[in-house]
């Protein structure tokens, strides 16, 4: 096969999202109310989300229709291209066929608009005026800022402080689309002030930023909260990635032996993998691998337990693999993967042995990112580079065994705003950071009693 990119026409954009809950034998235990510790009801989510998203969160219907207004915006960049990585294959000397689904073609430069657009749409339909959210590396904050600009909503983004400092142009992008961007922890919320009182120099974390954004939403009647990962409805919206990829691979008569995505909260991995797991449930053989940073390995090192989705304890309790809600990961450059827990759906699939997980240090990940950039030409975001590294490890194994596997991974975003991290790597200043076991033990000791 000499074809480099496999394209679909606009009319081939999937018109429904795939809900994996319809096919899972074991569903995750329900979320618990943070106060009563009883199963959360729909009305408990009302201060945070509009009715349509609450319904999707709890739905077990296999297919959910994509609104026409959302499809109209999707058409700005969807269907996204599927590439065959011929030059990378040659550099690795592997018999493997490597494909990557490239989500960096969206206006925000990542996969995150796939859920930001419907979330903004459903909030607009419900009469909401303003959305608050958090962001790590800035990809989610950029996506929601873009989506709010499409639908005329105000947007406030609490950006993890270390990423706010490392990636100033992400902030500029969000502000260009009309958002207000606040470094977290901040003195603007009670949650932020509590963290600063304990550690005035806190680098922040996604858990802390979530606490601030949730508090902001709950205290204002005109505001709701928007989340870019972890929750069921976010995983649902992202499945458009895998649904398109299945159509594209069918055009070249191929099918993956292994599907790979980076994993922080789980939206990137789920978006690509869940539609293929539907085939696995039906008896087809396919592996799915979630790749984490060694500094924040929720699946590979975490404990499966009910835990808060945020640091302060404002969110419902979720059953997930967690390092502890107060765990603050080392300040790696893949800020979007610095989250203490994994999606309940991803956690359940991992527990049941239906997916695999691997964790790698950022030095190895950046080495793979540079190899990819020098062969395929695209500069990947540090988060996406984890999936690249996982794919390269699989391809190297094929080179040893001679097995011609088909490898598919999600290149979820470009690295144009991440050049400071590449500078650090290329100048030899990038240090590997590893999971702080003692810090996690301390955090796990603070798990809520259920």
How many helices? The count is 18
How much strand content do the residues show? 15-25%
Radius of gyration: 20 Å
The number of distinct β-strands equals 15
The CATH class designation of the domain at 5-10 and 67-109 and 235-444 is: Alpha Beta
* Portion of residues within helices: 40-55%
Q: How does the overall form come out from the CA principal axes?
A: globular
Q: What is the CA–CA distance across the termini?
A: 55 Å
Name given to the CATH architecture of the domain at 5-10 and 67-109 and 235-444: 3-Layer(aba) Sandwich
Structural class: alpha/beta
User: Could you tell me the mean pLDDT?
Assistant: 94
Oligomer type: single chain
Major sheet details = 7 strands, mixed
Across the major sheet, the strand order is: 1-4-5-15-10-11-14
CATH topology of the domain at 5-10 and 67-109 and 235-444, which one?
Rossmann fold
**Poorly predicted runs:** none
Describe the structure concisely.
The protein has 450 residues and is an alpha/beta fold. It has helices at residues 51-58, 68-74, 86-92, 113-125, 139-151, 161-166, 168-176, 190-198, 206-218, 232-238, 240-251, 267-281, 298-301, 344-351, 362-376, 382-401, 419-426, 437-444; strands spanning 5-6, 16-18, 63-65, 82-84, 97-102, 130-135, 154-160, 180-184, 223-225, 258-262, 287-293, 303-308, 317-322, 356-360, 406-411.
Describe the protein in words.
It is built from 18 helices and 15 strands. It is 40% helix and 16% strand.
